[in-house]
Write a structure and sequence with these properties.
homodimer, five-stranded mixed beta barrel, elongated, NA-bd_OB_tRNA (chains A, B)
Chain lengths: 447, 447
């Protein structure tokens, strides 16, 4: 019976014949026996193979080095050692592929994350990246599960677009070289699916996107990627308060899902990468997020007697140092900041009655800072037009967006989650290049 | 109580006060009563609102035209007509947004799909596109659910790449205009995540991608998109037969999921678009796919006495007319064609012992033709190198791909599903531009 290691280690049925595949992590020889630890990627736990040299020849076992791939047929038994665990007494070992110890880069010694980034094609074979990408998967699945169960429809907004949604940043252009004119107009890679997502919500009621977005910023930091994945739900017939409720419930749901389904990976990451990790995850899930108008946030920062690098002024955009002070020192829990001045927010956000602030909501997390940005959208055709005019925007280009306010407009709201930021938070990693399989950054599009 | 129409129509609890939102589909007035059908995108079924002019003024109701958006507060009751159904006796109606009958393009009359494609920002508000995109969502969710339950990890392969996976077609180039050199090397949009997906499978055991892919072909047909979504599972420790089992099980699972969860949308599509639809779906789910070596497929075609536009020759690539003959006339069920000549397949497919054919598998469906293409991958380092040399490929560019065969190589296999082809098949639509929200085709990247 062929079985994955994660499933085998769950059983308490011993003395059964099984067939297991994996890559060799370690191989330790004593006089008559070899102990081989293999891993098949299904779990952070290795499976121990006991190969008696009477059955499995020593000459053959010399080839079974770290990094090689084998199939083991044998009996799954309860080990007789102090710490009892399941292991396999090998009857037969098939060597699929060797890994020359002189050449294979992932030897037993520890490697820096920097080194592993340069061999991203092999780093999935390490405990740490196995854990990260299993957590990433489970977070992605939780996102689909959450929205599906809430009646949202997954909606694929275009990657190649001819409009810059929000002037959110520098764009990558898309051409065909010999024929610049494939689409008849200049085209670029999307920075956000929101505007098209609104079109979906204004017909289907509630949608979410989950796809790649792009920024051509020349930023070489541990927080920036040129290509990253965004989750953008959008819902008709809700206001900013419903939107805050949704975002808080959503974040807690997906983090709780990871806590429950990725226990051994999170324990591994907690023990090796970030010792406060699991406690921090529980704290976010178990505490109500503080909801704080922007003007109050500014007051708190002003009265903090803290010397910030960038001094506090009403009307300013909050900086990472300000966000972290509020979240990590003042409130000690996630915060939803609302009602920002319209000048520092996007054109599509709903204007409050004061004519000065908009119904924006940014969710700030410990360690991460802004993890979600959202708003109720301006649903009034004339107000939206006016704001676009004030900002000198091209209204002809967004005729379709404006029409949704002309025909059957409704209150609606949504938000955007940078998926890699969520994975950073839940894995406790600090460099965003380590939570996406093949990061794209300035001067780097390897693999 | 605020409730979605799909949930309300499921209840059998009548005489409760509810609040429902939606866009007006029709408004019919009799002497003292208005009957307003609204839809909120959650289901293909409209909800009937009964507005007595005593309570809701006639002057106000004049504004409640097709396309306008309203909230209705009232009592949910069982109608007294012949065909009993739940409806709402309105106590109060809030008009969110009007839709000027002179301007709103979606009046009651039927519109051509062609016309609706030009107003893709509004077409989600029609029954047909509501049905299509709800089915699309449920298929996407079923895909994630299937692979999650089978232990596959969702794996995001890069969209911007510097290598052309398989010479699969013309590439879109990615630049930053003022700085052609963002990545330090020429970059393009991916045509397939397979090669990077293999890297994932060769560490994590089993992965799947589900993301956008791109072809810059100047093809203006009802089957081609410049931007479309692909699903590409890849699994270590399996061979071509396991791969066929997986693909067949997978297709049946997701189609069965749609049959079970999208009943009313599929009935609508069956009745309005494609009358054989539901029968065809059941037939695919209930019959074993025929597995057929390529050489036998050629023999059958030769002996068919059919005059094909392109005559049959051993070694040729199968054409749509050939595929449809085999699937729709000869076998009358889906077919998996295997063991194609290596010359007409990609470099990474595993060579058979005959040195002539490769372990490819194409799944052919009625109406659609090829819906899945896959193979066992060449896991032998020397054979892979040799094939790449024969084809004059750039081995330096794919050093990382080759290294996976050098270090702990294992038998592995996978396949690719064009998601829009699946949506076409399950919705019974015939133009691929109608099953993706905002199609990208030559000269068209609107919205």
């Amino acid at each position: 019976m062929k079985i994955r290691i994660i499933d085998l280690l769950k059983t308490t049925t011993y003395n059964i014949n099984v067939s297991v595949n994996g890559w060799v992590r370690t191989h330790r020889q004593s006089k008559n026996i070899s102990f081989i630890a293999i891993n098949d990627g299904s779990t952070v736990h290795n499976l121990q193979i006991v190969a008696e040299h009477e059955k499995i020849k020593k000459d053959f076992l010399k080839l079974v080095t770290t990094g090689s791939a084998i199939r083991v047929d044998g009996m799954f038994v309860l080990s007789t050692g102090n710490q009892q665990h399941g292991e396999i007494i090998a009857q037969n070992i098939v060597l699929y592929g060797t890994a020359d110890p002189q050449e294979y880069p992932l030897q037993k010694k520890e490697h820096s994350l920097d080194f592993l980034r340069n061999i991203a094609h092999l780093r999935m074979r390490t405990n740490i990246f196995g854990a990260i990408f299993r957590v990433r998967h489970n977070l992605a699945f939780a996102i689909h599960k959450y929205f599906h169960e809430k009646g949202f429809f997954y909606f694929n907004t275009p990657i190649i677009t001819t409009s810059d949604a929000e002037g959110a940043g520098k764009l990558f252009e898309v051409t065909t070289g010999d024929n610049q004119d494939f689409f008849g107009v200049p085209a670029n890679l999307t920075v956000s699916g929101q505007l098209e997502g609104e079109l979906g919500a204004l017909g289907l009621g509630a949608i979410y996107t989950f796809g790649p977005t792009f920024r051509a910023e020349n930023s070489n930091t541990y927080r920036h990627l040129a290509e990253f994945w965004m989750v953008e739900p959008e819902m008709a017939f809700i206001d900013i308060n419903d939107n805050m409720d949704l975002a808080e419930d959503f974040l807690k749901y997906v983090i709780r899902y990871a806590i429950e389904t990725c226990e051994s990976d999170l324990i591994f990451l907690n023990n090796t990468v970030n010792s406060g990790l699991i406690e921090r995850l529980h704290s976010v899930v178990n505490n109500k997020f503080v909801r704080l108008p922007y003007s109050q946030a500014i007051e708190i920062l002003k009265q903090s007697n803290r010397e910030f690098e960038i001094p506090i002024l009403q009307g300013m955009d909050l900086n990472s140092e300000h966000e972290r002070f509020l979240v990590e020192e003042y409130f000690c829990c996630p915060i939803i900041v609302t009602n920002y001045p319209k000048e520092i927010k996007a054109f599509y956000m709903k204007l409050n009655e004061d004519d000065k602030t908009v119904r924006a909501m940014d969710i700030l997390f410990p360690q991460i800072g802004e993890i979600i940005g959202g708003s109720e959208r301006e649903s009034d055709y004339l107000k939206l037009r006016q704001r676009m005019e004030e900002l000198g925007m091209n209204m002809k280009q967004l005729w379709w967006y404006l029409e949704t306010r002309k025909f059957g407009t409704v209150p609606h709201a949504g938000f955007g989650l940078g998926f890699e930021r969520l994975v950073l938070f839940v894995t406790g990693m600090s460099n965003i290049r380590d939570v996406i399989p093949f990061p794209r950054t300035p001067k780097n599009a390897n693999f």
